[in-house]
Write a structure and sequence with these properties.
Distance between the termini of chain A: 27 Å
Number of helices of chain A: 5
Largest sheet of chain A: none
Helix content of chain A: over 70%
Radius of gyration of chain A: 16 Å
Strand content of chain A: under 5%
Number of domains of chain A: 1
Oligomer: homotetramer
CATH class of chain A: Mainly Alpha
CATH topology of chain A: Substrate Binding Domain Of Dnak, Chain:A, Domain 2
Shape of chain A: elongated
Order of helices and strands of chain A: HHHHH
Structural class of chain A: mainly alpha
Amino acid sequence: MGTAVMDMIETYPADLGGVDRQKLARCIEECMACMQACTACADSCLSESKVSELVTCIRTGMDCADICATTAAVLSRHTGYDANITRSQLQACATACRSCADECERHASMYEHCRACAEMCRRCQRACEELLRSLG
Amino acid sequence: MGTAVMDMIETYPADLGGVDRQKLARCIEECMACMQACTACADSCLSESKVSELVTCIRTGMDCADICATTAAVLSRHTGYDANITRSQLQACATACRSCADECERHASMYEHCRACAEMCRRCQRACEELLRSLG
Amino acid sequence: MGTAVMDMIETYPADLGGVDRQKLARCIEECMACMQACTACADSCLSESKVSELVTCIRTGMDCADICATTAAVLSRHTGYDANITRSQLQACATACRSCADECERHASMYEHCRACAEMCRRCQRACEELLRSLG
Amino acid sequence: MGTAVMDMIETYPADLGGVDRQKLARCIEECMACMQACTACADSCLSESKVSELVTCIRTGMDCADICATTAAVLSRHTGYDANITRSQLQACATACRSCADECERHASMYEHCRACAEMCRRCQRACEELLRSLG
């Protein structure tokens, strides 16, 4: 997977500007992994007998999944690169991942899917923040 | 369509907090209309004989469409409302719509689809900004 | 909204083939309205005190919303038209809308948002089926 | 990545029915990898000097990316599982991947990104077909 994203970056026919390719590839991968984890965790929450205690977790997971999917797509496009769009979407993604990680951590001792999802969200948050810093 | 979004808001079974329902409904509608216009405009650009002059417009349109779709979804969820997620995604959407409107306006005298799309983007940008202001 | 979709269709610079423009525009509009209604209904279900009775409805709504969003995007692209992709995605959309309408109807007497959502799903299902028939 | 998807499947708190977990995880992973490859390939095509020869490839890539994203989300949800929705969306995904692989293969000798993307699409097509067969 990591290899596949980097393969696509390396076959890009034009200049990528000064972007750090490793950080870019890592951020795209983390966005996709986080999108999947959040979708699966929200669904696992729906299957818990105490679902009524998990409604904020489900909603935050749905928001985070949508935002990660869009961020992965924006980061996968380089032609006509617009730093303003990329930066503001990365900010939104870091914010959503932080909220979702915080919420999932509240349930992590009880539910294994929340523990696993919190970890993916935290990794994605950090990858977004690192890419943001490297963009200057 | 406007009616349908407001219908769903009015059947929401819990409190919406202090949000302005008219501004919320309008912003969701504009995000959906803008998503569709950007997808259609990017595709129309692909059909123009001078497509090579329109690659930035196509890319910005694809980013804007994805960002608008995610923003419409985030705004359609009220349970476990997280003001940080909503605000940062609205910021990203206003930014993408402004970039896409600016880019489409450059081609508006030449291409009717760019003129129509620029108008939708500008309306969506304003609806996002107004909703942001009303959120405080 | 209806007008906006038709505006974009009418500014398309190339031939649309034999497609029925009214049926195409209507189907795109219904897909977007259904996507929004399903997202909002799933979220309203999360706010009900008896959320545990609504988990199938929430899941079906999330699937239907995603599928409608993708179908609206596929239908908004005409360049390099591929009838196989369009037809199979329309089939998937009609199937999802039928399932979601059936599920929401089960709760329609109890929950106003399910009643409203069932109606949007049924309309979208019919619009997909009509467009499919007109494609031959 | 493969591990992350399987982690989420293994923390699912309810019964998964008779589904083959390996085939399910593999199909979700391939859908995400294909979504990213198609988004990146369409963007790379936009950067080629002969972009006008690649408009069908760009459009098919955009359709395939959207359809793969939705399929990955549908497959990541198990609660209230609806075999009709899953099957029809998998059919649409296999169809889109086949079309996109065919189209990218036409340009594979000329463009490395089309060669890489064709390979991802073919793998995703097969993963969808295998999962469909295993669902019976």
